[in-house]
Amino acid sequence: MNPECLETYKNLPPQHQEPPGEQEQMVPKPIEEDMEYVASGKLKGKVAVITGGDSGIGRSVAIQFAKEGADICIVCLSEEADAELTAARIEEIGRRAIQFEGDIADPAFCEEVVAGTLAAFGRIDILINNAGEQHEVNGVEDLEPEGVERIFRTNIFGFFYLTKATLPHLKPGAAIINTTSVQAYDPSPHLMAYACTKAAILNFTRSLAKELAVKKIRVNAVAPGPIWTPLIPTTFKPEELKTFGDKTLFKRPGQPVEVAPAYLFLATEADSSFVTGQVLHLNGGQAMVS
C-alpha cells in the first residue's frame, strides 16, 4: 500500500448522501483492494456470507476472501448497484458470488439468505456480521424511539437472527466474525445509540464464543476506528468530513483495504485456531482496554 496515496485522504471534501449511501458516489472513493496482494489459497473451497458486503469494509473483505479462494454471498439492504460491482469483481477474480437484498432485522429474510446460500454453494463456513447504520444526534434529548429501535434492529438484532439461521449449518472449524467499533470502548455522545449497539455486539461476541467453543466454532470481532466508507457521508455534516480521522496517530481515516486483513486472519483456521472471544482493534493507534 502506497503511503503517499493514503495521505490524500486527509481533509476530505464536503459531501452528503442519504442512507444507506453508495460507494460509487464518494469523493474520493475508498481504497477497497490492494492490487499487489499475493494470495495463497487460505480460504480455498470455503463459502462466506457477508452482510454489508456491497461496499466499504464488507466489499473489501469480500474481495480479499475471493482472492483467497472463497465463494461469497453478498447481503445488503438496497444498494443494488454497489452489490453488483462487488459481485462482478469477485467473478473477475474467478470465484462465485450471489446477492440478497433485504433487511437482516427480519428473521424470515435471514432464513432466506441461508437457504439461498446453501442452494447455491452447498455449505457455509464463514459468517461476517458486518452491516450497520448510525445517525448523529446532539445528545440523548434528540433520541427518538423509532430511530433508536431501527439502529438496534439493524446493528444487533440482525446479528442475532442471521447467526441463529446460519448456526445449524456451521461445522467444526467455522468462523463467525462480528463488526463492532471503537465506539464500543470510547463512545461519542453524538453517536449514542450506535455506540450502545456496538457495545452489545462486543458482549454478543464474547458470549457466543463461550457457547460455541465446544462445537469448535470460533467467534471473534473487529473494532474499526474512523474508516472511509459510505456510512460516513450519510452520518456527518458535510463540513465535518474535513477533520474526519485527524485524531488518529496517522492524522487520517483508515481505508477498507487496511481493515480486511484482520477478517482474513480470523476467518483462516490455520492462522487463528486458538483465537476466540477476541477483538482486533484497527483504529489508527488508539489504545483500548479489551
Series of H and E elements: HEHEHEHEHEHEHHHE
> How many domains, in number, for the residues?
1
Instruction: From the 3D structure, determine the CATH topology.
Output: Rossmann fold
N-end to C-end Cα span: 28 Å
What's the architecture, going by CATH?
Answer: 3-Layer(aba) Sandwich
Q: Roughly how much helix do the residues carry, as a percent range?
A: 25-40%
Class by alpha and beta content: alpha/beta
The tally of beta strands, per DSSP, is: 7
The total count of helices amounts to 9
Assign the CATH class.
Alpha Beta
CA radius of gyration is 18 Å
- % residues in beta strands: 5-15%
Largest beta-sheet details = 7 strands, parallel
Mean pLDDT, nearest integer?
95
Q: Looking at the structure, what is the overall shape? A: globular
In what order do the strands lie side by side in the largest sheet? Answer: 3-2-1-4-5-6-7
Which regions contain 5 or more consecutive residues with pLDDT less than 50? none
CATH homologous superfamily - what is it?
A: NAD(P)-binding Rossmann-like Domain
